[in-house]
Structure formats: C-alpha cells, structure tokens
User: Fold this.
Amino acid sequence: MSIESLAAARDSICGAFGVLPGLFNAATTGPLVREAQRHLAQWTLQPIAELLAEEASEKLGSTVTIDCMTPTQSFDAGGSARALTAIVQAYAQAKEAGLAPAVVDSALAKLDWK
Assistant:
C-alpha cells in the first residue's frame, strides 16, 4: 500500500498546485504533456505572473508585463499551417464583410502573429 499511498499523496499535492496528475503517469504522451503544461501556465502561473507584474509596475514606475501563455502556443509546422490557413480565410471573410483592418490586426495580435 505504500506505493499507492505515495502516488495518491503526489497526485494530491500536484492538484493543489495546479499540476495535472497525468504528467506523472508512465503512459502519458506528448499531447497530454503539452495540454498539462498549458493548463499549468493558464490557471496557475499566469495569475501569479500578473500579480508579480502589477507589483513590479508599482515599484519600478513603468508598466511591466509577464506573459506565460505565448510560449505555450503550438509551434509545430502542421499546426502553424492550419492556423495560417484559417487566418487567411478569416481575413478574406472579414474583408468581404467590411470589417475594419484594426479588428483583424487585433485578432492576429492575440495569436502573437503581429
């Protein structure tokens, strides 16, 4: 029972800190690892980073930003190609609909594709 108790304790501690227990499973594959890392960055690290940035902005007298999410985006060739195709199609539809270029530019900026 000591192995099961250790695993249960580890999973509980990981859960308390926002780390998905699947990261420690021997059968975990790359997609789950990436999603678990994104989950950790979005729900645990980014809120802490925003608090740190707010405090640093007050102390330093200028705006400080800390971004934990941009580095966790998918940068694989297939995913990037699909994203670019979708963006080009959306850009064409936005142009047909008469949307201002600023709207499309802000959408690209959210994807860090400025």
